[in-house]
Amino acid sequence: MEDVSSRGLHFQLSDSQRNRLRKSRELLREAPGNYHPSAFVNIADPIHVENEATVLKGHGTQVLDGQLLATLSGVVERVDQLVTVKPLRCRYNAETGDVVVGRITEVGTKRWKVDINFRQDVHLMLSAVNLPGGIQRRRTVIDELNMRSLFEENDLISAEVQSVHSDGSVHLHTRSLKYGKLTNGQLVKVPPYLVKRLKQHFHNLKSCAVDMIIGCNGYIWICAAVDSLPSNPEIEKITGDSGAPEMDSCNESISLKVRENICRLANSIRVLSALGFLIYPDTIIDTFDASISKGVAIKDMLGAEFLVMIAEREASRRTKNNYML
Amino acid sequence: MVHDRPDGRNPNQLRPLVCARGLLHRADGSARWSQDNTIVIAAVYGPKAISGRRENPARAVLEVIWKPKMGMAGPSEREAEFILKRTLEYIVLTAMHPNTAISVIIQVVSDDGGALSCAMNAACSALVDAGIPLKGLIAVTCAVDKDGVIYLDPINKEEKEFHGHACLVFPGKPMSSFAPAGLALDSEPIERGIVTSVTKGILSAEDYLNCLERSRAASVKIAEFARSSLEKAQRGVELVVAS
Question: Where in this chain does the record put each Exoribonuclease phosphorolytic domain (chain B) (predicted)?
Fold first, then answer.
């Protein structure tokens, strides 16, 4: 567990709840799998390495007079010969192949500018999207003029990072059927360092009829599962549309049960991010099930009692199973 | 002849320091630095996108905005912004993030003397909080001089009465002790160098060097305080709780 502050969420804790939370945090700190206190470094602290010449200096380090110093304050990660310093809080760092969820901010000549919580606005080139009609062809002037029919300002899209250039600019692409415009759901923003890079970022929760896209940039999209919607998937075969099934911006009406599931999942993610726990499907579903089994109403999930309960659950799980790790 | 200070401190005593980090939710990094009644909040946004003529393809552009407690920003605020910009450019590794801008915004909450040094300490803590790579930390102190006696960390009353005033920025010492030779630049060890020096009024050369020595000793204490507060922030409980 990383110690992070939950920005933006305030909790009114009573004294007993505060004590319980403090106890859980101490248990979690002692539990195995946590960072050893010596791994924390501050700026200009020396990092101990056996042989400075053979070590690969990664992000957050600099060499001064034969000594390896940290330029960021955070934890030292050593992977074989690579030494990097991972800061405890920072903006999202784009890597090639990351799945991200972003919002279109601008429509420009032959490209869209997308906001993905990165240092700069990233570009989605016209040549990097699937055109309606599905065939591969050169983009003509007509395509440029019709860019707005594909994506407009303030649309949400899912895409993959195609390349990161040396000057820091990032290009995205949506060259697959699973990427494209997002509708019928809710966006949850969490700090990007709480999202691990996994094999799968698209999750389908069949029991709740909900789809989840966990973007590496900290934007998480929860929406009604495509097959639970009343729309007819045959239609796209007839028209030959090979983009995302709903390319128009009107949202379908979703049943109350599915909407409740979406809200409950979104609140579980918010609670996890407030406690600073890593966010991936297992923890989200676990919190979701805990809230259902304890009969917590959706609006109470952002209250202090549920927060303390989740912290205690995690603390007891880690200390109980430590021999199994 | 040593005057009595209005608040009863002796000439070498600093005011109590308090540093809080991460108070602003929307900023990438923030810090509030207080020295008794002088309180300054610094917010850092960045690295973020910058447009047009101001962007530099080789390094990040650092911009500082100083907001006084009352009234509009005038020439003295512009001067403070310039000094801060040059000082922070020394410690920020701007070449790591080309084509971006790092904005530092300083808000003076209350000013009882030494606002510039307080602001520089706050800005440094906020940069660390934002996760921006830095070469090292800085520690800033100021001092006034009257009749050859140096008084550290002056309050407003003292600043108005005394003849010479100096604000000095030193590099924060690294935690481990380097070899006795240390880092050297023209045979002067880097830990003992000065980053910035701002002086006002009349100071004789002897008094200025005296000032330097005392401030350097005080800056070591400030650097230690900043480091320990950073370590506490790294490991402490950090839920925002409203009590």
Answer: 13-133
